[in-house]
Amino acid sequence: MNHTKRSLDGIWDFTFRETEDPQGLLPETLKFDNAIPVPGCFDVMEPWFARRGTGWFRREVQTGGPVQLMLDGVGVEAEIYWDGRSVGRCPYAYMPESFTFDAGEYGCHELIIAVSNRFNRVVFPFYDFYAFGGIFGEVSLRELPKDHLEWIRITTLDHRSGLIAVKVRACRFFRKKQTLDVRIDGKNAGAWEFSGREQEYRLQVPEFRTWSPEDPHLHRIEVALKDDSIEEIFGIRQIEIRGRELLLNGKKLRLIGYNRHDSHPEFGAAIPPSLMAADLQMVREQGANFIRGSHYPQRESFLKLCDRLGILVWEETLGWDVKPPELFTRDFLKRQQDQARKLAAAHYNHPSIIIWGFLNETESQLPRLRAIIRAIRRAYREIDITRPITFASNKYEKDLCMDLADIVAMNPYPGWNDGDINERSGVHRVAPRLKQLAAAIPADKPYMISEIGAAAIYGEHDPYRARWSEEYQSDLIREVCRTVLHDDRYCGLCFWHFSDAKSYLGGGRVAGFNEKGVLDRYRRPKLAWETIREEILRASGAADGTPTKK
Ligand code: ADA
Q1: What mean pLDDT comes out for the span 297-319?
Q2: Nearest residue to 79 (alpha-carbon basis) of 49, 112, 40, 103
Q3: b/e code 231-253 from CB counts within 10 Å (16+ = b)
Q4: Ligand 1 pocket by C-beta < 6 Å: which residues?
Q5: What was the pLDDT predicted at 419?
Q6: What share of the chain is helix, strand, coil (3-state, %, to 5)?
């Protein structure tokens, strides 16, 4: 038996139905008359382009006995069938999920993933990003030995000495003492006694190097119990808050980067790893170091790339601008807490993730939000006590919950969303507005700009530098950089956004795209891209913006 994870990606059978729900239809009544890649979105290709309904993905799998099936994100929701019987659901778009069940006798079995892209209580039609339908990340399977490990979680306790804590969870309670064999970076690192179901150990990593954007060094740990073993990649790094400062391994950290959607006209939300790598490579080449995974959980391959390339990540649960009465329902809160726990557990070991987020632009001007925000924080804290937690707010001076965020994060749009739309330029409003807002942030808290920007249509050049031209976006962004990057009050600046992303026609979205990308939807740079590069260089000491060696 092979207990290591095996990928089930490839070409699967496919069919699409507009009418039936994944829960309501028996898979045996379907005719699989098409083929589709997994990962893949069905609604970015003919004949299912822009249609809403259920996409049925099917393949055969050779296996048997107890198995764990893992899905790294679907949209909008999915039901999973094994030999015609439901074995689980993915209720939250983009969320990694795993299902343990008995696969039956060893042999050939049928796996069907029925993915609905209809809107639900998690993905609403008012979101400013398109709800793609499909399987966004890897599908994989692990055959489980009778006694196996469920997970290991690694926490850096001291970056100076390389001391880590390793929490191990087994599939069942062991009365008798067991032995866990431990290897670090391929070398024997001793044995631990294990009993019960969960235990934590401390270990000094031999010949360790810390992880940082400048030197994203990774270590590997393997923990073996009987016939089973789990391997995890981790980094030795500590993220801390001291007063207004954000520290990485004891050193002051300045975040600069982008909000980024998993969005491409041809791939939808199933972004191939090569495109993810190209995106991140551009970010790094530009001198930026940060991605806010707006507005949902990121794919495992994306996070692995961030770990390797030294890009810092804010990861968040899905909950975009949800309003009362939905916001105040018990179910909504339960779903948010559930998402927070699942996300923190699934992505715990990635050194690149340094912030957990939730509820984008919520109603944090209302006293009632305090209890909701506390409850979601608590859910994250049940799993992870090490990373700062925050939410991106657009309630500015009226926000009543800033004290509940470890880092106060604001989404202001001066020069774009404010003032008179007929005015030729609003760039002069940027600096005064940002200064005014900064003065309202609690003095003892770190503060970052989590979104800021202006829309520009790719290729639109204008001698008047008018709104929607590349010139206007570039001018506004230069002003933002000159205000924020030279002021110690900010621990981060995160532009809205990396590349133009598919949305809907509402809210002034030209051709249904959010055009505030500094790259267009195919990643072609607008003027602002070079502007940001120059301003990062300027802020890092090369005062005239001329490139210096890294
Ligand atoms: C908000 C929101 C983003 C996007 C942006 C915009 O700040 O958080 O998702 O919609 O506005 O482009 O207006």
Answers
A1: 98
A2: 112
A3: ebebbbbbbeeeebebbbbeeeb
A4: 128, 360-361, 394, 411, 451, 496, 514, 516
A5: 83
A6: 20, 35, 45
Hey, what are 382's tokens? 């049940």
Q: How many residues does the chain have?
A: 550
Are residues 64 and 106 in contact, defined by beta-carbon separation less than 8 angstroms? yes
* Residue recorded with tokens 């209580």: 121
Given a contact cutoff of 8 angstroms between Cβ atoms, the answer to whether 450 and 400 are in contact is no
User: Which residues have CB under 8 Å from 540's CB, separation 6+?
Assistant: 287
Rounded distance between C-alpha atoms, residue 153 and residue 508, angstroms: 45
451 Cα to the center of ligand 1, angstroms? 8
Q: 32 with 14: CB under 8 angstroms? A: yes
- For residues 301 and 341, is the Cβ–Cβ distance under 8 A? no
* CA–CA gap between residue 252 and residue 311 (Å, rounded): 16
pLDDT at 24: 56
Cβ–Cβ < 8 Å for 257, 290: yes
Nearest to 113 by CA among 32, 195, 230: 32
pLDDT in tens, 495-521: 999 999 999 988 889 899 999 999 999
Separation between Cα atoms, residue 379 and residue 56, nearest integer Å: 33
Q: From the alpha carbon of 503, which atom of ligand 1 is closest?
A: 10
Q: How far apart, in whole angstroms, are the C-alpha atoms of residue 396 and residue 248?
A: 27
Distance 128 CA to ligand 1 centre (A): 7
pLDDT digits (tens, 9 = 90+) for 213-238: 999 999 999 999 998 999 999 999 99
Indicate the burial class of 73 (C-beta count within 10 angstroms; 0-12, 13-18, 19 or more).
buried
What percentage of the chain has pLDDT greater than the value 70?
A: 96
Helical spans, DSSP H, in 235-296: 273-286
Separation of 243 CA from ligand 1 center, angstroms?
Answer: 29
Query: Is 79's pLDDT higher than 50?
Result: yes
pLDDT value at 250 more than 90? yes
Q: How far apart are CA 492 and CA 190, in angstroms?
A: 41
Q: How far is the CA of 457 from the centre of ligand 1 (A)?
A: 16
Distance between CA atoms of 458 and 461, rounded to whole angstroms?
Answer: 8
Per-residue CA distances from 136 to 131, 386, 483 (Å):
12, 29, 38
Cα-Cα-Cα-Cα dihedral sign, residues 299, 48, 37, 113 = positive
**Ligand 1 atom having least distance to the Cα of 411:** 7
Tell me which residue has its CA closest to atom 4 in ligand 1: 128
| Structural contact between residues 522 and 513, judged by C-beta atoms closer than 8 angstroms | no
Encode 447-485: b = buried (16+ Cβ within 10 Å), e = exposed.
Answer: bbbbbbbbbbbbebeeeebebbbbbbbbbbbbbbbebbb
Cα distance between the two ends of the chain: 49
Measured in degrees and rounded to the nearest 5, phi and psi for residue 73 equal 100, 130
Tell which atom from ligand 1 comes closest to the C-alpha of 507: 13
What distance in angstroms lies between residue 393's CA and the mean position of ligand 1's atoms? Answer: 11
